[in-house]
Design brief:
Layout lengths: L2 E10 L2 E10 L10 E7 L6 E4 L1 H9 L3 E2 L1 H10 L1 H13 L4 H89 L1
Helix pairs in contact: 1-3, 3-4
């Protein structure tokens, strides 16, 4: 029986969640599996991967063949490295403690790289939010300035109209008094 380590799709339409499983290569993609090794959620940034590395290494050592995507995931989480280090221990190149020490240092470096990416994403999100806020503030300030200018112009126009009304009233009064004087004369 040919055994594969592959992904089994679950989740809603447009929101996939993949189970990393060990299955017979002849079974359907989402069909019967032998063992579940973990999950993979590609929609998060960075992708969420939960994997039981020891079980994965055990299956790899027994001859299970990973698919291309599963191989990339196993490599990302260090299962292939651990298998390689276990091969070195079996050949006598180094001891199991040294292999575990190398694996732990690799895990620490990988975790630092992942954390750096998360921090960078977080700062870029905050920067984008700050830039958006600044742009909105500029638009708001420009809108306020335009409203104030329009209000000042309106007040000036109102003042001119009042002055014109006073002048026209004075002229009308003057005309009326002139008319009275002419009619009395």
């Amino acid at each position: 029986m040919a055994v594969k380590i592959r992904l089994q799709r679950h989740g809603k339409k447009g929101k996939p969640v993949f189970h990393i499983v060990v299955a017979d290569s002849r079974s359907k993609r989402d069909g019967k599996n032998i063992e579940k090794l973990g999950i993979y959620i590609p929609t998060t940034n960075p992708a969420t991967i939960e994997l039981n590395v020891d079980k994965a290494v055990n299956w790899l050592e027994q001859g299970a063949q990973p698919t291309d995507t599963a191989k990339a995931i196993l490599s990302y989480k260090g299962a292939l490295l651990k298998k390689h280090l276990n091969g070195g221990v079996k050949k006598g190149a180094f001891s199991a403690e040294e292999a575990e020490k190398k694996f732990q240092t690799w895990l620490e470096e990988k975790e630092k790289a992942i954390q750096a990416k998360k921090d960078q994403l977080m700062t870029s999100k905050e920067q984008a939010k700050k830039d958006k806020h600044e742009a909105e503030k500029k638009v708001s300030d420009a809108r306020l300035a335009a409203q104030q200018k329009a209000q000042e112009v309106a007040e000036e126009n109102d003042a001119e109209e009042v002055v014109e009304e006073i002048i026209s009233e004075d002229e009308a009064a003057t005309d009326a008094s002139d008319n009275k004087e002419e009619s009395q004369a």
